[in-house]
Amino acid sequence: MTWREKAADSHYQTAVAIRDELQSGHVDQARQGLEELIDALARSDRRALRSQLVRLMVHVIKWLSQPDQRCRSWASSIRQARAEIAEIQEETPSLTDDVVKGAWDRCFDLAKDQAESEMNQPCALKLLTWEEVFGNDYRI
């Protein structure tokens, strides 16, 4: 199994394997493993950020598209997703707002598809603004 495969499979097992390589004096192997582990952790954090952004956008789309069906759970999901994104950014400072903006269009497309499926109707929204997603206060 390659370091990349190991890192994709289990971060913990990869760290243990790196430790074992170091204890055996195989510094170059450990270095390769560490580089793959760092890359895998970064991918995982970016994936988590995108997942929360899609979740947030889905509920904002539903909120804006179906005003007569607004509910506390949508408002709660919006607040929770915002908090999760802020926590991910705090724990991984390299995941700045610019990274969020870089994933914006792709996440919007995914969110729109999911929202349309959940609403069982097409969504008329062509885009979401930063203010709509992160600024507006959604409360009932």
Quick summary:
With 140 residues, this protein is mainly α. It contains 6 helices and no strands.
Assembly classification: single chain
Task: Enumerate how many helices there are, as a single number.
Answer: 6
Rg over C-alpha atoms, rounded to the nearest angstrom: 20 Å
Helical content stands at: over 70%
Shape: elongated
Straight-line N-to-C gap: 52 Å
Indicate the structural class: mainly alpha
Helix-strand sequence: HHHHHH
What's the overall average pLDDT, rounded? 95
Say how many strands there are. Answer: 0
Biggest sheet layout: none
Number of separate structural domains: 1
Structure description:
This protein has 140 residues and is mainly alpha-helical. The chain has one domain (3-135). Helix content is 77%, strand content 0%. It is built from 6 helices and no strands. It has helices spanning 3-9, 11-23, 27-65, 72-91, 97-119, 130-135. Helix 1 packs across helix 2 (11-23), helix 3 runs antiparallel to helix 4 (72-91) and helix 3 (27-65) crosses helix 5 (97-119). It is elongated.
Layout of helices and strands, plus pairs?
Blueprint: H1 3-9, H2 11-23, H3 27-65, H4 72-91, H5 97-119, H6 130-135
Helix pairs in contact: 1-2, 1-3, 2-3, 3-4, 3-5
Question: Which features characterize this protein?
Answer:
single chain, 140 residues, mainly alpha, 6 helices, elongated
